[in-house]
Amino acid sequence: MSNPSILILPGDGIGPEVMTQVTRIIDWYGNKRDLKFDVSTDLVGGAAYDAHGVPLHDDTMAKAMNVDAVLLGAVGSPKYDDLDFSVKPERGLLRLRKEMDLFSNLRPAQCFDALADFSSLKKELVAGLDIMIVRELTSGVYFGEPRGIFNEGNERVGINTQRYTESEIERVARSAFELAMVRSKKLCSMEKANVMESGILWREVVTRVHADYPEVELSHMYADNGAMQLVRAPKQFDVIVTDNLFGDILSDCAAMLTGSLGMLPSASLGAPMDNGRPRAMYEPVHGSAPDITGQAKANPIACILSFAMALRYSFNEGAEATRLETAIEAVLAEGVRTADLLGEEGVTPVTTSGMGDAILAALDASL
Ligand code: NAD
Ligand code: IPM
Ligand code: MN
Question: Where is this site: Important for catalysis (predicted)?
Fold first, then answer.
């Protein structure tokens, strides 16, 4: 049988820098655990635009549809600010999500003990935090029609449309209930049913799906209150399910609870493929970080943890995923820090590859 296949799309800015560390980890699994992958690499975002004039070539899209998992670094750069909207780097990422139909985006926010002091919140509020935001990823205001900038009388109007069908809400709700069942059986759904019809429908459908998961304790919260509650008392939550835009914002907010945006991984999952694996793309929550690009400062942990999620959700290697997560925890406990995690006196930051070295050493030590 052939090895499972991975398409790596490093992208722009710090994307290639953090992805280099992930490829070292993938090689480690091949050499030390006999867990081999067929890895190919291609362009996305500004890098693809520079080569092909589009942020995602059709051939790359076709490759993404034919692998077991895609790993993506990050896209975007101020360099492309003046490009036409249709070819901006971010469109490449959105096309991948839409055409792969990756409707369920899992964004875990976990506070490692060693980093509890780095949160912008008091240590006792975040110590032990382990929540999972399930963000709907293929619909809502990101994709709804009509959209565009139009002339209206003697001025222009910018339009985006929040749109959700019942089936779109139902499938992401189901994935959140399934997750809640294997976690602490607690789910909070966030929308704004007080002002948006799409929110009313969201609440209705989630409530209906709840009938199939009676063991799960379901609550509903307006998303603005949810944002406040996330910083007031984040440990009240376990699984949160929400729409595309609220999920984008709430997950960045949750990131800071854990100490740094450079720590947060994500898995974007779709329906099962013919081989039974879910169609899947794994990417850090952070972006291309133009302010630190090329300085060897980027924290590769979010991207490496995204690969750990691939081991768990695409390759059925939960124990190896835990090995990798435990190695990262050990490295943090030893005090190894990239520059985004500084704060303690007398700590010299390691570079991006220095963090990779430390994680590889911890993996070796785990054997
Ligand atoms: P960003 O996430 O790139 O950066 C926000 C801040 O966090 C910056 O100060 C950055 O230095 C820091 N940061 C982010 N990741 C880090 C890491 N791994 N290690 C250390 N520090 C890190 O968000 P932004 O500045 O709003 O956006 C920059 C570009 O990235 C934009 O073009 C945006 O569209 C794009 N973006 C892409 C993705 C993605 O590819 N999934 C996600 C978010 C933003
Ligand atoms: C994210 C990013 C993307 C989003 C952008 C880059 C398209 O912010 O993955 O969180 O808005 O979804
Ligand atoms: Mn975002």
Answer: 142, 192
Q: Is 213 annotated as catalytic?
A: no
Between CA 304 and CA 263 the distance in angstroms is: 9
Instruction: For residues 197 and 205, give the distance between their C-alpha atoms in angstroms, rounded to a whole number.
Output: 12
Reading the block at residue 215, the tokens are 């063991």
Claim to verify: residue 210 and residue 152 sit in the same structural domain? yes
Does residue 106 contact residue 310 with C-beta atoms inside 8 Å? Answer: no
pLDDT in tens, 136-182: 999 999 999 999 999 999 999 999 999 999 999 999 999 999 999 99
Ligand with minimal distance to 76 CA = 1
Q: Is 181 in the pocket of ligand 2 (CB under 6 A)?
A: no
DSSP H stretches of helix in 197-314: 197-210, 223-232, 244-257, 301-313
| The pTM of the whole model exceeds 0.90 | yes
Q: Are residues 309 and 360 in the same domain?
A: yes
Q: How many CA atoms lie within 13 A of 323 on its CB side?
A: 18
The answer to whether 142 is a known catalytic residue is: yes
Q: CA–CA separation, 348 vs 185, rounded Å?
A: 41
The kind and range of the H/E element at 242 are strand 239-242
> What range defines the domain where residue 198 resides?
130-257
Cis, peptide link before residue 4, omega less than 30° from 0: no
Bridging pattern class, strands 130-136 and 186-191? unpaired
